[in-house]
Write a structure and sequence with these properties.
Layout: H1 2-19, E1 28-30, E2 33-35, H2 37-52, E3 62-64, E4 78-82, E5 98-103, E6 108-113, E7 123-124
């Protein structure tokens, strides 16, 4: 009889643990916005696809000049592309405050934001 109670309790605990919502792991936090690695990858992929297609004139992606002097882990020329807090991939309109930075080899340089920066500068996420 005791064994069946233990088994029932174990089943309940396992079911609860599996059904419990998993907290998203933040790869980057810009201000109060949490970005998962998959969100960063999706934004980078969209930006790089446009870069490869030559769509870098008046909109995004465009060259990021690194006026702030970030020490990125990859070499440039760098391009910036918006990453949106709602999880959608940027396709025009207001770019929001946050950007993924990548180079011409499609290597992620970092994620930066206007949030908390002076004027039109960026700070690291």
């Amino acid at each position: 009889m005791q064994y069946s109670k233990i088994l029932a309790l174990a089943t309940l605990l396992i079911t609860t643990a599996v059904a419990a919502p998993q907290k998203r792991a933040c790869a980057y936090t810009c201000g109060t916005v949490c970005y998962t690695s998959s969100a960063v990858s999706a934004a980078q992929a969209a930006g790089y696809k446009l870069y490869k297609a030559g769509s870098t004139d008046d909109s995004y992606p465009h060259v990021y000049h690194n006026y702030e002097g970030f020490d990125f882990p990859v070499s440039g020329t760098y391009y910036e592309f918006p990453i949106l807090s709602d999880g959608d991939v940027y396709d025009g309109g207001s770019p929001g405050a946050d950007r993924v930075i990548f180079n011409t080899s499609d290597e992620l340089a970092g994620v930066i934001t206007h949030t908390g920066a002076s004027d039109d500068d960026f700070v690291s996420c």
